[in-house]
Amino acid sequence: MAEVVYAFIKDDLVKNILVFEDPSESFLDHVKELQESDSYVLVEDKFNHHVMVGASYDGSVFKSPKPFESWVWGEFPNGATGWMPPIAPPTDNPQADIRFVWDETTISWIAVQI
User: Rounded to whole angstroms, what are the CA distances from 27 to 24, 38, 44, 59, 92?
Assistant: First the structure.
């Protein structure tokens, strides 16, 4: 039997994530009651990095918690979805020991030496 992953949802937020081997619907309903959840969702892609406790679920898409107030949900050039900053990070960094971190107070990227 294959393992399946279910997310248990309450008030549009993932409350818990559980792994089962071929559970029946009545078993899942019982677990939903024990979890005090509104619903449960089969997680089709076990490696979906947006599925986590605290993520939101709008009925079709899991969204990881928003990292900063200014960021928006969008699609990256590679087709992946996620939270995106309002300003793209710098890509022309000539120094290997410099990284850029987001500063929400200034809505900008700050260079940090590592």
Answer: 5, 15, 19, 22, 54
pLDDT digits (tens, 9 = 90+) for 16-35: 999 999 899 999 999 999 99
> What is the rounded CA–CA span in Å between residue 22 and residue 3?
7
* pLDDT above 70 (res 83): yes
> Cα torsion at 16, 8, 69, 83 (round to 10°)?
100
- CA quadruple 40, 42, 48, 50: dihedral, nearest 10: -10
6 vs 51: CA distance, rounded Å? 10
